[in-house]
Amino acid sequence: MNLSLLTMQGWEQLAREAEYNPARMASLCSISERQLQRLFKQHVQRTPSRWLRELQCRLAKDLIAQGYSTKAAAAELKFANGSHFCREFKKVFGASPQTFAPRQVNSSAIQPRHRISERSWEVLRNGTTSPGR
């Protein structure tokens, strides 16, 4: 396999097959982990570990935007646990994963529980009631 000719999609597929583990990636390519590091430094200007972490976080961002929970995205992308995922995600994007979650519309925010009378609104606005009411 000519590793330098692999497309970015090819590397991403290889990363999934290796479960985002640099040693497994090297093994799947039949090269040493050190040789994989040299290839990445030459072509991507990152270590394999850093590139894999950024890939995982980018894929997680897409999953969360689709409605996955933080925990589900972390499990899907082979993070050790949810807190490890959140910490790494914040390093990559500077924000927590939930920042990218679709906004849930809270139905109680749309429909008030109690209707306020016009007179009550006036009291709130002015601090006094108008004469004759």
Provide the CATH architecture: Orthogonal Bundle
Distance between the termini: 87 Å
Q: What portion of residues is helical?
A: 55-70%
Q: Quick one: CATH superfamily?
A: Homeodomain-like
The residue-averaged pLDDT reads 84
- As for the number of domains, it is 1
Q: Could you say which structural class the secondary elements and strand pairing correspond to?
A: mainly alpha
Show unreliable segments: none
Number of strands: 0
Q: CATH first level: which class?
A: Mainly Alpha
* Rg calc: 26 Å
Seen as an oligomer or otherwise, the chain set is single chain
**Strand fraction band?**
under 5%
Find the CATH topology. Answer: Arc Repressor Mutant, subunit A
Number of helices: 8
3D architecture notes:
The protein has eight helices and no strands. By secondary structure, it is an all-alpha fold. It has a single domain (3-100), classed as Homeodomain-like (Arc Repressor Mutant, subunit A). The protein starts with 7 loop residues before the first helix and ends in a 7-residue tail after the last helix. The relative contact order is 0.08. The model has no long low-confidence stretch (mean pLDDT 84).
